[in-house]
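Lab manual, section 2.4: Encoding a predicted structure.

Procedure: take the sequence of the chain (81 residues), apply the prediction step described in section 2.3, and record the output as structure tokens. A sample record is shown.
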Amino acid sequence: MRRIILSIAAAVVSMPLWAMHCPMDMAKIDEHLKANPPSDPSTLTRVKELRAEGEALHKAGEHEQSLEVLGEAQDLLGIAE
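Recorded output:
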């Protein structure tokens, strides 16, 4: 029982950390798009779609999913996490 309570407490405490990470990833993507956008138009479009989807998920409180989507955008741009 004690482990369950500690696990739940750890999850609740870590949620704001996930939430704070999303804006940092969005900022990285934005900076990269300004400084060195992909030359392939389809890649650029896909990155912008993923960036927008990540922001929407972040605003909806789905931070883990947001990080996955933003990570995919970063992979397309070649940004190391």
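Check your result against the sample. Confidence is low (pLDDT under 50) at residues 12-18.
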